[in-house]
Amino acid sequence: MQNSANRECPRRMNKSARSFTVTSTISDVERDTGVAKETLRVWERRYDFPQPQRDPFGERVYTSDQVNKLRLVKRLIDLGYRPGKVIQFSTDELQALALKAAGEARPQAGSSHPELQSYLDLCKSHQMEAFRRNLMQAMLVMGMKNFVIDLVAPLITTVGESWASGQFAIFEEHLFSESVQIVLRSAIFSVPQVNHGNSGPRPRILMTTLPQERHALGLLMAEALSAAEGAHCISLGVQTPLPEIVEAARVKQADIVALSFSTTMNPRHVLDSLRELRSRLPETVEIWAGGANAALRKRAPDFVRVRELQEISPGIAAWRQRQRAAGQPSA
Predict the structure, then answer these.
(1) Which of 20, 32, 174, 267 to pair with 130, CA 20 to 30 A apart?
(2) Are 139 and 183 in contact (CB under 8 A)?
């Protein structure tokens, strides 16, 4: 009887372990890795990876190990590798390659804020209160523009690379993102929303992301820099349906609609959405876009003004000049 019980115990334990296995749907994988559903299916046929399981309804589901590997593959593709060259590597091999490739792609890393590593250490040790306190102190010392461009932006890039290469757990990246959002929102709130005297017309900038884009940090950095330049920022947060963006731009009388696109969003969807948005907005409303999405770097349409963070200030100045040339009064 004792031997029988011993034989049964592993079965119960295995069944229990399987019941707690975390899997992701194909939509989850597309959202979390930036690899389109169609691409996942092509890779499955062509490279025999990923190898999804099937749920009780016959739909594809992916283990966390496969999702982690896909995240590394996507990171390497963004750095210029072809999927056929890297997809057969193990997760450890991909992680090592991603770290090496990220270092080669970032030759100026040594010129970033000297305390960058201390912020990363606080995140990795989960000292988030100290992390936020140090960020707030840095903002007061550096000023808004330098704080966002010279500290927050490279910090976000470094954490993103660490997350993509498996050095940061997903929950740790979420802790980091939430803390940075808290600090940026506090900084934005501290900027007086008043006209800056003789600086010229005050643009009304509607800021959001499309429904497929849930990342908020790029949007918040752009809002902080715009507010510091005297713009009237109208934030809708993330994941706003396109018809609602159009309606909000009309009701709030926006001069500019600013959108943020990360690498996780399908470039084809980015371009299609921008074209549709342009067709629905009045010609007087400018469309600004920013972020690391390939659609903005390789083939951005002429009707979109692509803005890096450091280009926001001169971009607002140029908008003011265009308004003065057109004889528009200050807002």
Answers:
(1) 32
(2) yes
